[in-house]
Specification:
CATH architecture of the largest domain: Alpha-Beta Barrel
Helix content: 25-40%
Structural class: alpha+beta
Shape: elongated
Strand content: 25-35%
CATH superfamily of the largest domain: Regulatory factor, effector binding domain
CATH topology of the largest domain: Multidrug-efflux Transporter 1 Regulator Bmrr, Chain A
Mean pLDDT: 85
CATH class of the largest domain: Alpha Beta
Radius of gyration: 31 Å
Largest sheet: 9 strands, antiparallel
Number of helices: 8
Number of strands: 12
Length: 281
């Protein structure tokens, strides 16, 4: 049997471009132990085949596996993960891609802020008429769940009840939560109709009272910019002597249902307001 080549930790570190500190950490967690430790000098020696192991560790780390996961593979006698582990890591990658896309959209919104229409041109103060609406109110665990319920539960039920909708009718949502809870959203969807019908277990008909004064803000494009619109709304109110007088509405004028071009989607935030009678100096 040929003598095995044994490399000192320094040589092994240099050849594999891995610091000795990292190699000692690998040893500490049981991921890669030296082939031999001299009992007198404490020198650590590695074999040629362990160079392949280091290359494998590097590749698996690049693929997103943790050192603990890699150690488990090695302990099971595998140098590569099985298909189940790979599919799980692919799913995690997809989730990370979605988060990065969301971050990219936010950064693009920030970059485009200076190109937007002057904020004053986006605001108007209007009186909102009384409306007869078909109302769907439920608690959902996410906005995606709510949108799915709106498309597959609320709107089909409104059609089933034979509601006569007004041409270019108004639909809007109201969030009734007193505090923010992204996983328990109490949200109401209202669709304007000609007259009240017979309530069902899903849809209730109601009369929405007129709102004497509402600050209305137009938002063009996707829904990503809606949450950041509220600081602008409240800043406008503060600068012009108004205060909120009820829950805001999100009124959907154009969207995916009638405009393929996302830039042409139009949402109007309608915030009921009143004059501040005794403004603070």
């Amino acid at each position: 049997m040929k003598d095995r080549i044994k490399l000192k930790i320094g040589d092994f570190s240099r050849l594999m471009q891995v610091s000795m500190r990292t190699l000692r950490y690998y040893e500490e967690i049981g991921l890669l132990k030296p082939y031999e430790v001299d009992e007198w000098t404490g020198y650590r020696y590695y074999l040629v085949k362990q160079m392949v192991t280091v290359s494998t560790i590097r590749s698996l780390k690049e693929a997103g596996f943790s050192l603990e996961e890699i150690r488990d593979f090695f302990e099971d006698g595998n140098l590569v993960p099985d298909s189940k582990n790979i599919k799980e890591k692919l799913e995690q990658c997809e989730q990370q891609i979605q988060r990065l896309n969301t971050r990219r959209k936010l950064l693009q919104l920030m970059l485009d802020r200076d190109k937007r229409v002057n904020a004053l041109d986006r605001f108007s103060i209007q009186s909102l008429p009384a409306l007869t609406v078909a109302s769907y109110r439920a608690t959902h665990h996410s906005y995606d769940e709510f949108l799915d319920a709106m498309d597959n539960i609320a709107n089909p039920e409104i059609e089933k009840l034979g509601c006569v909708r007004i041409p270019n009718n108004i639909s809007f949502t109201i969030i009734h939560n007193d505090t923010f809870d992204p996983k328990l959203i109490d949200i109401e969807y209202c669709q304007e109709v000609v007259e009240k019908g017979q309530d069902s277990d899903i849809i209730q008909f109601k009369q929405m009272p007129a709102i004497p004064m509402a600050l209305c803000m137009t938002i063009w494009g996707g829904y990503e910019g809606i949450s950041e619109a509220f600081p602008e709304i409240y800043n406008y109110m503060e600068q012009n002597g108004y205060e909120a007088d009820g829950k805001s509405r999100l009124c959907f004028v154009n969207g995916s249902w009638n405009k393929a071009d996302k830039s042409k989607w139009l949402t109007i935030i309608q915030q009921p307001i009143r004059r501040i009678t005794n403004p603070l100096n």
